[in-house]
Amino acid sequence: MPPALELAVVACMDTRHSVEKVLGLKHGDAKVIRNAGNILDDGTLRSLIVCVHRLGVKHVAILGHTKCGMTLVGRGEFRIAKNISATTDVPLHEVMRPDFQRWLGGFEDVEENVRRGVQLIRTHPLMPRDLQVLGLVYDNENGRVHPIID
Ligand SMILES: [Zn+2]
Q1: What's 55's DSSP letter?
Q2: Do residues 16 and 140 lie in contact, with contact meaning Cβ atoms separated by under 8 Å?
Q3: Are 71 and 106 in contact (CB under 8 A)?
Q4: Which residues have their alpha-adjacent CB atom under 5 A from ion ligand 1?
Q5: How far is the CA of 63 from the centre of ligand 1 (A)?
Q6: Digit-coded pLDDT (tens) for 103-121
Q7: What is the CATH classification number for the domain harbouring 58?
Q8: How many CA atoms within 13 Å lie on the side-chain side of 92?
Q9: pTM
Q10: Residue 23 belongs to what domain range?
Q11: How far are the Cα atoms of 21, 83, 85, 150 from residue 17, in angstroms, in the given order?
Q12: Domain count for the chain
């Protein structure tokens, strides 16, 4: 089903907020794609391609939020790697391959991460030139949303 507002939202999987409540959306208004850190990885881009070229989406919003846990991953936090090693047969040195941190997708700055996502969609060769892309950050403390790129 195409979304009623021709909108797709890429948001973090953070459980402190509901994307629909934050943006005042009703069920069926938008396709909501969530992952750790609202990152435009291959899976998210694949879903957006389907939204745009099959489901009539004409507007995309990247919704980041303050105090995102993925900012900790971006600072070289090794708990995830250690836990993978402790709970699987993969030794830590193999988990910690050179691009492990980058692959996890951590970042230091929430707004910069949103900007990067907006820019990636705006310049992606498979995205329509007239696609509207908006960057937003939700403040977990005051409940407000502010635009990063309009
Ligand atoms: Zn987050």
Answers
A1: S
A2: yes
A3: yes
A4: 12, 14, 68
A5: 10
A6: 887 888 999 999 999 999 9
A7: 3.40.1050.10
A8: 7
A9: 0.91
A10: 7-71+106-149
A11: 8, 27, 31, 22
A12: 1
